[in-house]
Amino acid sequence: MKVEGDKKIEAFLNRHEFLTPKRYRYSDVKNMTNSFRDKLGKGGYGDVYKGKLLDGQLVAVKILNKSKSNGEDFMNENGDRQLTWEMLYKIAVGIARGLEYLHRGCKTRILHFEIKPHNILLDDDFCPKISDFGLAKLCPRKESVISMTGCRGTIGYIAPEVYSRNFGRVSHKSDVYSYGMMVLEMVGGKTLNDEDYHTSEIYFPHWIYSRIELDEELRLQGIVDDDVDQERVRKMILVSLWCIQTDPANHPPMSRVLEMMEGNIDSLTIPPKPFLSSPS
Question: What are the residues whose beta carbons fall under 8 Å from the beta carbon of 58, sequence distance 6 or more?
Fold first, then answer.
């Protein structure tokens, strides 16, 4: 019978959809470590052994100790690593550059349709790489509007016109909406799966818009910086709010998004309030 901590860990792994780690039987782990022969080290949560997968790839195998905790330590084993505002800003700008290249830098325009944090990989220098092109569509460079049947993407990041053509035609600007929602999530330190995220009182884009409109203190959490660059944060928010406008015609192209992100904040105006959220 599973203890409460095990149940929490099980639920945590299952929530991560395609990111869920592959499960191995104990016999598989024993075989790949040659009966735990080569011990590499010992950590706070268990011993680490050298292992080899069937394809010959070398791996480190951690055998967890039995724990009486509630599973929080396992789920947040590396949770003390936080980003500064400068790092977040550089990541956001890097993603904008990548999207601008997909939309204008290739011989054929590439529409991603799945821009979200899970699909942004960071290297050792925190340089972002856009991944997972499973839903992407190609479009001639001289064209921007495409025909599409059905809805594609992840709830919370889907542009309104993608799930209902009543809002407009699907184009490369649908990626702009997803980018805006993702940057707002980065700024707010929230995830779109937070239980209270979509309530009328706490829906984050509306909450942060009202703060910007009234020029109130943002009181954002989740980022560790003693000297927060308020101007840079405000710029990221304003650009994001322009990106998530309900009418796709009001979405700036990624080339303009990049200009706004790298330009002077004095040239940015507060956009109309985005009144709609993605389907839930």
Answer: 50, 51, 52
